[in-house]
Design goal:
InterPro entries: Cyt_P450, Cyt_P450_B, Cyt_P450_CS, Cyt_P450_sf. By secondary structure, the protein is of the alpha+beta class. The protein contains 16 helices and eleven strands.
């Protein structure tokens, strides 16, 4: 037994960490730090999963062919019949998402979609997005407001409109469906109530996608997916699952990143001045926001075969969770590796928010075959949004001491970010 294995065994008998404890839900950082130090491969009985917390292990296992994508989890079949009936359709639907599937059909869809997410393609819709962002800022109420409701989410909606061909009057309903799926995904284990809500969202979303969104062939992605559907190169269920994943992958993550960036800018006037003046610094700032506050913390996998990691025996069929948020904060941050590597390297202490040029690397978009298709789009839209927000008054109106995070272990999300009335703040960038 090696040192890490011995530490894990000791920890399990003395003080087994609780991933669902309120303190972990409110701030998972201390637990991930403890696991990296004492038990880098941790078995959690409550969620039936292994949790891998060290950067090097996360990077290696993301490429390890002994691990499959999340797929359809075997634990669903062990649920009580009544619970299984509710959870099963949700898990079967999620198993078709590109990020959760290794199936040939999913790989084929992903290959066709890559042309819609090139930098050149995204650049064709960025100016329109920038105009929508300016309009969102102009429409913020002058009285009391909420940054999440009045700024971050409307800007996030503006990202799905040109990519998926969603019209402004349709985004609110899509957002509600997306929230239902993210709430289910971000909760470890099987939450039957959340699964029931997610099932309803899937049914309504399916009808909208097949009957309304795809036939219009508006947006960068809808035309591609509709051609795959009409030429029978992909099944309807795979098309709907892909479209839905792209909705959830844009709405909440973009809103979260914008909110996290704005809160940090509100409390750091010097960073804000540099962000407005230097495009390279703005790029570094965005990467640091994504590193410190990743929208999704988990990259779930399933073991294809037995394997040993740090002396821990993982069996075929076991669920293995790669902790992206933990990997982002370990060791010294990289300034030299390629943009998708996230490898450790020279830099400053990663537990502190400190944008550097060149930007630090992270694994918030995943690593390997399931790297996020929309990473380029997300970065481009965030750059455009922050360029507009940095020079506006809305950031100065944020009440940083009143920010409320959503209680989630597997994701970052903001419940509320209250804003003071416009008349009570000074000029942009000034402290009140």
């Amino acid at each position: 037994m090696d040192i890490d294995s011995a530490r894990c065994s000791h920890a399990a008998t003395e003080a087994d960490p609780d991933l669902l404890a309120p303190r972990t839900v409110s701030d998972s950082g201390p637990l991930w730090r403890s696991l990296r130090s004492d038990c880098p491969v941790h078995w959690d009985a409550a969620t039936g999963s292994w949790y891998v917390s060290r950067r090097a292990d996360v990077l290696a296992l993301a490429l390890d062919r002994r691990l499959a994508a999340r797929g359809y989890p075997s634990w669903v079949e062990s649920l009580p019949p009544a619970d299984r009936e509710v959870v099963q359709p949700v898990e079967r639907f999620l198993a078709r998402w590109l990020v959760f599937s290794d199936e040939p059909a999913s790989r084929r869809v992903r290959r066709h979609l890559q042309t819609a997410f090139t930098r050149a393609a995204i650049d064709t819709v960025t100016d329109a997005f920038r105009l929508r962002t300016r309009q969102v800022i102009a429409d913020v109420p002058l009285g009391t407001a909420d940054f999440v409701r009045n700024v971050a989410r409307p800007i996030a909606r503006a990202t799905v409109e040109p990519i998926l061909g969603i019209r402004p009057d349709e985004t609110s309903e899509l957002e509600a469906w997306s929230d239902a799926l993210i709430d289910y995904l971000a909760t470890p284990g099987a939450d039957v109530a959340l699964a029931r809500t997610a099932t309803s969202a899937i049914e309504r979303c399916t009808e909208f996608i097949l009957d309304v969104a795809l036939p219009r062939e508006e947006g960068l992605v809808s035309a591609v997916l509709n051609r795959l559907l009409t030429t029978r190169q992909a099944e309807p269920d795979d098309i709907v699952a892909t479209f839905t994943q792209l909705i959830t992958g844009a709405l909440e993550p973009v809103a979260t990143a914008i909110a996290a960036a704005a809160v940090r800018l509100r409390t750091a006037p010097i960073m804000r001045q540099r962000l407005c003046a230097e495009s390279r610094y703005r790029e570094a700032f965005i990467e640091e926001v994504l590193r410190m506050d990743p929208p999704f913390h988990f990259a779930p996998r399933t073991a294809r075969q037995g394997m040993s990691v740090h002396g821990r025996q993982i069996h075929a069929g076991d669920r293995v969770v790669l902790l992206l948020s933990s990997a982002n904060r370990e060791g010294r941050a990289d300034r030299t590796a390629g943009p998708d590597s996230g490898d450790a390297g020279p830099g400053e202490a990663p537990e502190a928010f400190s944008p550097t040029v060149p930007a630090r690397r992270h694994v918030s978009f995943g690593h390997g075959a399931h790297y996020c298709l929309g990473a380029t789009a997300t970065r481009t839209f965030l750059d455009a949004a922050l360029a507009e927000l940095g020079s506006s008054q809305v950031v100065d109106r944020i009440e940083p001491d009143m920010v409320v995070l959503k209680p989630m272990v597997g994701a970052t999300g903001y419940e509320r970010i209250p804003m003071a009335p416009a008349a009570s703040v000074q000029a942009p960038g000034a402290d009140r």
